[in-house]
Design a protein that fits this description.
Blueprint: E1 5-6, E2 12-14, E3 23-27, E4 32-36, E5 40-46, E6 50-55, E7 62-65, E8 71-75, E9 79-82, E10 87-90, H1 95-98, E11 117-122, E12 125-130, E13 149-155, E14 159-163, E15 184-187, E16 193-198, E17 202-205, E18 211-216, E19 220-223, E20 233-238, E21 242-246, E22 252-258, E23 261-263, E24 268-274, E25 280-286, E26 291-296, E27 302-306
Parallel strand pairs: 4-12, 4-14, 5-13, 5-15, 14-16, 15-17, 16-18, 17-19, 18-20, 19-21, 20-26, 21-27, 22-26, 23-27
Antiparallel strand pairs: 1-10, 2-7, 3-6, 6-13, 7-8, 9-10, 11-12, 22-25, 24-25
Length: 308
Amino acid sequence: MKHIITLVTFLFIIGTGYAQKNEKRITFTKGTLKLCSTANMTISGYDGDEVIIKSLNNNANYAYYNRFGEKLKTLKSTDSVVFGYTSFFNEEENKELEEGLTPLGNKSNNPADNLYLDITEKPGELIIKDYNGISNNPGIINTVNFNNKYEILIPNSVKLLWNTEGCKKTNSNTFFITSNSNAWKLSDFKGEAEIATSYRSINLTDVSGPVIANTIGGNIKVVFDKVSPTNLYSLISNDGYIDMTLPQNANVQLDATGNRILSDIDFKVLNEDLTEFDGKRMRLELNGGKTKMKLDASQGSIYLRKSK
């Protein structure tokens, strides 16, 4: 092994992405998928038996700094890190040794093995978190991930719990504030989904539900194109709007609260009240109202559109 550098000082890595052409497949057909990440993710459901994670990250170099802000070394995306007393080596120089072999176990000291995600498998539970970059050696930070992008396929047979709480339960409606404003996207999913975030929008396309989605400072856009809603929907957007597209033959009853409620669908108005903040609360019915949906945009508007 060439060019080994051993450091015993406090390290920090700054980067913007890395080349990842690999994908990770995890067999998981029953239970709860807990996705606790601030990365930019696009998720689709499918009738399969694996969670498939594909990285969409770009090439980048990484600069290592000590606690005084002095630059120690720049790494390319082909470099790897060995933890403990941190060492660097070029992965290209060890390709022959690794050819035909795969890492064993669920944990790895090389974050690239899990596409820079912290993945934990338990009976009936699969947990995917952002890789925090902290090694077992106190005081040493080995890597930090920024602006990561992923595409994920998930089986329709699982329950999706997607939030930025680090997989921790919360009794309030206050969620971790993220710095990434890209919308979270979930499409073609037939299972149960719970989604919670702050300052980020949520886009759902042909997600049949049941669904609970809550965002603070973001918008919620829901499109039913190939399917009609058949399960309970609860959408809450604080300081944002809700935009929903429905087929004309949808059999729904909506409890809608917002500053303004606008539609080009011929709903039957069952009830209408003004809220204490001069907004409007309405109960709307279409084709009998079999499927219940709750839409709460607080001071934002609600847009109800018929699909073309």
